[in-house]
Design goal:
Layout (H helix, E strand, L loop, with lengths): L13 H9 L3 E6 L4 E4 L1 H7 L3 H4 L4 H5 L5 H13 L8 E8 L5 E13 L2 E10 L1 H19 L3 E6 L4 E4 L1 H7 L3 H4 L15 H10 L4 E9 L5 E12 L5 E10 L1
Antiparallel strand pairs: 1-2, 1-5, 3-4, 4-5, 6-7, 6-10, 8-9, 9-10
């Protein structure tokens, strides 16, 4: 195996190195002392350090925020002193330090690897910023939905109610616990029961239906005039998996 420029750290085998370089997530390999011996392009994109700048540097000093370095040192010392160190992936959420000094929320997966009798550590670093932003956006949207005075109702392709907001409770009189899991026919009078299959046929073709008026039935049996807008709900590949309606008592 080749030596690094400072002569202190061993490179992993070529096949392992190729796996690290090809990984979509930031991938870093370090020796038992925590010195970086491999660093892929995704790590450069995420953390700012070029490959040649990172190699030979202690991982803790390069990308670990100061408050977290003690835990890393303890783990490395444990593996160095153990005659039979445990193998297996450790996965946890933490922060990584970018070259410019700002911290990035990450999920870190670390696995010790035996390489010709030596212990190496493979660390895969996943940027969590987009996931956190998505969760925050979902929370904001959920707050908007819950605060709406309009009924906002989600259904699957079988017409089973999957979501039911506070506005739907006010418009129709059913609580979310009563409505979710029930067929949407609980709000549709028998004389217009044929509307729902027709709507579904249009929506599965990907079309939206904006602001048309229908008659609906409340829990207490009273019929009400409702203005409805309907949109298809799609999965990650674009297939229609349900419908979402905004329904206003007029």
């Amino acid at each position: 195996m080749n030596e690094t420029e400072n002569g202190n750290s061993k490179h992993p085998g070529n096949r392992f190195s190729q796996i690290v370089r090809a990984a979509l997530d930031a991938a870093v390999t370090m020796d038992a002392r925590g010195v970086i011996i491999d660093w892929n392009d995704a790590a450069t994109d995420l953390l700012g350090w070029e490959h040649q700048e990172a190699i030979g540097q202690p991982l803790g000093e390069l990308i670990v925020p100061e408050g977290n370095r003690g835990r890393l040192i303890e783990r490395l010392e444990f593996y160095q002193s153990s005659d039979d160190p445990p193998l297996g992936i450790r996965r946890f959420k933490t922060e990584a330090l970018h070259r410019d000094g700002h911290e990035i929320p990450i999920e870190l997966s670390v696995a010790p690897i035996l390489n010709d009798g030596d212990i190496l550590f493979s660390a895969f670093v996943r940027d969590l910023r987009s996931q956190i932003a998505e969760v925050q956006e979902r929370g904001q949207l959920a707050a908007i939905v819950d605060s709406s005075v309009d009924a906002i109702i989600g259904k699957d392709l079988g017409g089973i109610i999957t979501t039911w907001n506070a506005g739907a409770e006010m418009v129709y009189g059913y609580s979310a616990e009563e409505a979710i899991g029930q067929p949407v026919s609980i709000t549709i009078p028998d004389e217009v029961a044929g509307e729902e299959p027709e709507l579904l046929q249009v929506l599965t073709a990907g079309q939206k239906l904006q602001s048309f008026e229908v008659v609906r039935r409340r829990k207490d049996g009273r019929l009400i005039d409702v203005s409805i807008s309907v949109s298809p709900i799609r999965d990650g590949v674009g297939a229609v998996i349900g419908t979402a309606t905004i329904e206003r008592d007029i």
